[in-house]
RNA sequence: GUCAAGGUGGCGGAGCGGUCAAACGCACCAGACUGUAAAUCUGGCGCCCGUACGGGCUACAUAGGUUCGAAUCCUAUCCUUGACA
């Protein structure tokens, strides 16, 4: 018998219908949905990030343990995790974990089932497994001073401050400026706070979680992505973009690297044609789907389901029932 | 029809006698991932053999030629684009 809270996770690459499955499961299991998506956290970036807010769902502001959060609800089911920050603000995994943990706690308190839905594998991992360095804050000054330095230099700096960490980096990260800078940031923090080995890993196994992964053959996902981009344009993506740009949305923002938005900014800046922007948007999103697949493939906890199989929903529901009833 | 510029790997585009299976970018394949993660980064990428160091073969429009040696020079042919008719 486990006293851990149950947590259902629906993950997988983009365009596999995670949200619609989640909505059905939420109905069936008295659940609430929490989006795990690093782009859908931005207010006013709706169409391009694919916040599919189902018909009948209305936004509502709620105060949850000190956070004012926006929920979308039809009076019965609630969707959390959208619109967490304004698009000109910065956001990080750690912000996500803080907010999402609060939301989940709140859902559990009402004896409802939290259903995490999304494709940002890193956020899911952070939330479920925890990272020992999640608590180490950003050091703006340090980052500025390291910015633009050559990779080999950065590696040297890290090697001086934290030889062990430097040694453990894989070949790819050794050449990744962003990762190197963060590693240096962490080692600095540890030095300053005298916490050499004391970074406690966040309580893992906090939840009794079930991982459901949705997948489709790659070609099929690619097709769906192409269709979806067309639909988003039809549904008013350009207008959304114009509004954003009018308010100062620009390529320097963290939020502006979202697929679709980045390409459209290039088009608006006359760097590429509209056709090119669309083509690139589709391509980038397909590449993204591939990256998601290589990420999720590694996680052996995931129970995979092929979405193009007609009985898939029944199979998922079956699995969830078994897990849900087992206490 | 004349003149000019040019034809390079899936595409764009360097190279302009040897160190070229050919820079670089894109695309493609595989992978990493502990506060930007829809981001960032790594490896591979003509064919065949080998885990690898490597070896063999076929390639820079086509056909000849010059050279010890040619994607690079010469000739012809075929194409493309621009200018003049």
Q: How would you explain this protein's 3D organization?
A:
By secondary structure, the protein is α/β, with parallel strands linked by helices. It folds into two domains: 251 residues, 3-Layer(aba) Sandwich (Rossmann fold), CATH 3.40.50; 53 residues. 46% of the residues lie in helices and 15% in strands. It is built from twelve helices and eight strands. It has an eight-stranded mixed β-sheet, with helices on both faces. Strand 4 and strand 5 form a beta hairpin. Helix 2 packs across helix 3, helix 8 crosses helix 11 and helix 10 runs antiparallel to helix 11. The longest helix has 24 residues. The chain starts with a strand and ends with a helix. The model has no long low-confidence stretch (mean pLDDT 92). It binds one RNA strand of 85 nucleotides through helix 2, helix 3, helix 7 and helix 11.
Describe the secondary-structure layout.
Layout (H helix, E strand, L loop, with lengths): L4 E7 L6 H12 L1 E5 L22 E7 L2 E7 L4 E3 L12 H17 L3 E5 L3 H9 L10 H7 L4 H11 L1 H6 L8 H16 L14 E9 L2 H17 L2 H10 L14 H8 L5 H24 L4 E5 L5 H14 L2
Parallel strand pairs: 1-6, 1-7, 2-5, 2-6, 7-8
Antiparallel strand pairs: 3-4, 4-5
The structure holds one RNA strand of 85 nucleotides.
């Amino acid at each position: 018998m486990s006293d851990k809270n149950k947590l259902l996770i629906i993950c997988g690459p983009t365009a596999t219908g995670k949200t619609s499955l989640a909505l059905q499961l939420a109905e069936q299991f008295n659940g609430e949905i929490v989006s795990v998506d690093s782009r859908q956290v931005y207010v006013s970036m709706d169409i391009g990030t694919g916040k599919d807010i189902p018909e009948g769902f209305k936004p509502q502001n709620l105060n949850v343990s000190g956070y004012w959060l926006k929920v979308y609800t039809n009076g019965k089911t609630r969707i959390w995790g959208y619109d967490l920050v304004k698009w000109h603000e910065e956001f990080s995994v750690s912000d996500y974990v803080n907010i999402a943990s609060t939301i989940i706690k709140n859902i559990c308190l009402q004896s409802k089932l939290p259903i995490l839905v999304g494709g940002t594998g890193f956020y899911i991992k952070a939330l479920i497994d925890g990272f020992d360095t999640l608590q180490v804050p950003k050091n703006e000054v340090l980052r500025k001073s390291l910015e633009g330095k050559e990779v080999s230099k950065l590696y040297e700096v890290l090697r001086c401050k934290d030889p062990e960490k430097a040694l453990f980096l894989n070949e790819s990260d050794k050449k990744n400026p962003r990762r190197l800078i963060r590693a240096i940031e962490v080692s600095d923090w540890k030095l300053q706070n005298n916490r050499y080995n004391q970074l406690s890993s966040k309580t893992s196994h906090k939840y009794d979680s079930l991982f459901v992964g949705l997948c489709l053959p790659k070609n099929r996902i690619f097709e769906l992505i192409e269709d979806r981009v067309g639909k988003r344009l039809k549904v008013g993506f350009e207008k959304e973009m114009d509004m954003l740009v009018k308010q100062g949305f620009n390529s320097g923002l963290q939020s502006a690297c979202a697929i679709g938005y980045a390409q459209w900014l290039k088009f608006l800046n006359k760097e590429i044609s509209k056709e090119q922007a669309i083509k690139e948007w589709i391509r980038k999103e397909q590449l993204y789907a591939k990256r998601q697949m290589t990420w999720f493939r590694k996680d052996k906890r995931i129970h995979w389901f092929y979405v193009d199989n007609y009985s898939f929903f029944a199979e998922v529901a079956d699995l969830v029932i078994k897990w849900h009833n087992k206490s």
